[in-house]
Write a structure and sequence with these properties.
This protein is an alpha/beta fold. It has a single domain, classed as Rossmann fold. It is built from 9 helices and 9 strands. The strands form 3 sheets. A 5-stranded parallel β-sheet has the order 2-1-5-6-7, sandwiched between helices. A two-stranded antiparallel sheet has the order 3-4. It is globular.
Length: 284
């Protein structure tokens, strides 16, 4: 079951356990997380609230995610707001994520200033992820904007994943960097790796974890299937659980191995294997 939470200014506190203070090297019982991305970020945090609750954690989560959006588009919104705060085009993010609720629209600046975020994540849109030239100068501008308006936050790069082999996007001759899953993965890995190296930021290596599961012994299906039977580039429940397990380890600096949460759509054996992969793929 998917949980959606009301998130207003100031953001709603989701209390899943007792408050505690921890150093950067110790497991954390609390985390305030803001994601800047698109549907791939939504996929990866779908089960994060449930994992947090089951792990006795306290989580505040704000989703500055817009479907199909690139780093460039997020930067264009913040630049629009900076030029004219009254221009509605600069405030596209929902302060409310309640199912069916419209929610007040706010700017990224307002979202970043709405709480003392511990972690802010960024990611490139999937079809541009293999091409590093599409990352800059937008990633740099976004990072500097986050540092200005949420200086206490740890900024992490969210590495996305390659499409499944049965995805029709591989058939487009205009996108040779999307030739097949292995080609796409290697290009995505190189691009995100270059961004991490140039910025000095850590990376939640969801794409690496996907690749490990997809190419290892007894592969697990991590992507959805469209109504016409072709492969969806979005994650299914297995992939969403893997992404959330990666985020759990990254934001709480704690092991997901003994976390008891199990989505209805994921079998206990698959969940165990995915937790193992997530734990073996740390931020770096």
């Amino acid at each position: 079951m998917r949980y959606l939470f009301l998130h207003v200014l100031p953001p709603l506190l989701l209390i899943f356990g007792p408050l505690a203070h921890a150093t950067e090297s110790e497991p954390k019982n609390t985390a305030k997380v803001l994601t800047i991305g698109n549907s791939f970020a939504e996929n990866s945090i779908r089960f994060l609230p449930e994992l947090a609750r089951s792990g006795g954690k306290q989580l505040v989560l704000f989703r500055a995610n817009l479907g199909g959006h690139s780093l460039q588009q997020h930067v264009e919104y913040l630049e629009t707001f900076s030029a004219d705060p009254l221009n509605p085009k600069g405030s596209p993010y929902k302060a409310s994520t309640t199912a069916g609720g419209d929610g007040k629209k706010i700017s990224l600046q307002e979202a970043l200033r709405s709480d003392a975020w511990d972690v802010v994540t960024i990611q490139q849109v999937s079809h541009l992820s293999p091409q590093y030239e599409t990352y800059q100068p937008y990633a740099g501008k976004l990072i500097e904007f986050i540092k200005k308006h949420a200086p206490q936050a740890r900024i992490l790069i969210h590495e996305t994943w390659a499409y499944p082999s049965d995805c029709t996007r591989y058939k487009d001759p205009a996108t040779p960097y999307l030739k097949d899953p292995e080609t796409m993965y290697q290009n995505v890995k190189a691009a995100y790796g270059q961004l991490s190296k140039e910025t000095g930021l850590g990376m939640i290596r969801v794409g690496d974890a996907f690749h490990s599961v997809m190419t290892g012994p007894d592969p697990i299906r991590l992507h959805g299937i469209n109504k016409d039977g072709t492969g969806d580039f979005h994650a299914n429940a297995n992939g969403q659980f893997l992404g959330a397990a990666m985020f759990y380890e990254a934001v709480f600096n704690d092991s997901v191995l003994d976390n008891p949460f199990l989505p209805n759509e994921v079998t206990p054996e698959v969940a165990r294997r995915l937790r193992d992969v997530a734990h073996a793929t740390p931020v770096r």
